[in-house]
Amino acid sequence: MGRIEPFNVSNTLLEQPENLREQARQDGYLYFKKLIDEDSIINLRRDFLEICHRHGWVEGGSTLMDGIRIGGPFGPFMEGDEGFWPVLDEFQSLESFHTFAHHPAILDMCDKLFGEKTLVHPRNIGRIMFPENTKYTTPAHQDFIHIRGTEETYTAWIPLGDCPQYLGGLTVLSGSHRNGIYPVKPAFGAGGVGIETEPLEANGLSWVSGDFEMGDALFFHSHTVHKALPNQTPDKMRLSVDYRYQGSSQPVTQGSLLPHFNRMPWDDIYKEWTSQTYQYYWHDMDLNIV
Questions:
Q1: Do residues 229 and 169 make contact, with C-beta atoms less than 8 angstroms apart?
Q2: How many domains is the chain partitioned into structurally?
Q3: Nearest to 191 by CA among 154, 225, 239, 232
Q4: Nearest to 266 by CA among 257, 274, 275
């Protein structure tokens, strides 16, 4: 990968819906600085790290919020490893994790982007990326093959804390959404498939990224090629969430309405929740399920 260009920042377009949509059509992504309040990020980060600490992955006490990796037998793990599932199952059951997907600032932006009421996919994804595990850095890929339904689905990638590039932020290939679906090949990392990007780069498409600060959020089209940067720190976990959004009138697959990996039913996930507000909320919507 060659030089990484800086993101185009879209904050000024939040009150200009037509220009917001045009920016998304042009670049295949939208990047916002400080879109989300810090308290919401900090609270969810704490919930994630408390789970990681209970399973021996990170230090506790006064350094808990630093996400410092504990050496020893617990990891590094990646999605699909036997040692990853207990942590996955716990954060999949977090009410705060699923509630965060409905943050008002996110939904306000998405309603403007789609020009209608937004459907929040309940299949939410939490990412915990270990240091010293660069072989399994998420490869270049497109999300549509995992989502299907409408192509006009956008993924929100939100780091749970400051995320400079060396901690393993996300980078997108600007404009790569315009040419449909590219052939895939097996690859290490989340998702298990990747694409060859050299021909796209040779045709003038550029990688864009930046040093994420707490509260920053990146949204990208289901056809936009993107990948993680390696976590090059010696001892810090990179925590982030992936949420998916689309216009509520557009087609959605049944799989997008199931929990990530579908390891437990929704009733089990909801068991300890204190509110019913975001339980089965999609049942009250007239969805076009395909």
A1: yes
A2: 1
A3: 225
A4: 257
**Between 231 and 74, whose confidence is greater?**
231
How many percent of the chain have pLDDT more than 70?
Answer: 98
Range of the domain at 141: 5-289
CATH number of domain containing 122: 2.60.120.620
Q: Are 180 and 223 in contact (CB under 8 A)?
A: yes
Bond before 131 cis per omega within 30 degrees = no
Asked whether the bond before 265 is cis by omega within 30 degrees of 0, the reply is no
Chain mean pLDDT for the chain: 94
- For residue 8, the 8-state DSSP code is P
For the chain, the straight-line distance linking the first and the last C-alpha, in angstroms and rounded, comes to 37
What is the residue whose two structure tokens read 């998702």? 191
Q: What are phi and psi of 146, to 5 degrees?
A: -95, -20
Q: What is the pLDDT of residues 162-217, one digit of tens each?
A: 999 999 999 999 999 999 999 888 766 666 778 988 889 898 999 999 999 999 99
The residue assigned the tokens 């982030």 is 240
Looking at residue 229, what is its pLDDT?
94
**Exposed / middle / buried, residue 166 (Cβ in 10 Å: 0-12, 13-18, 19+):** middle
pTM of the model: 0.95
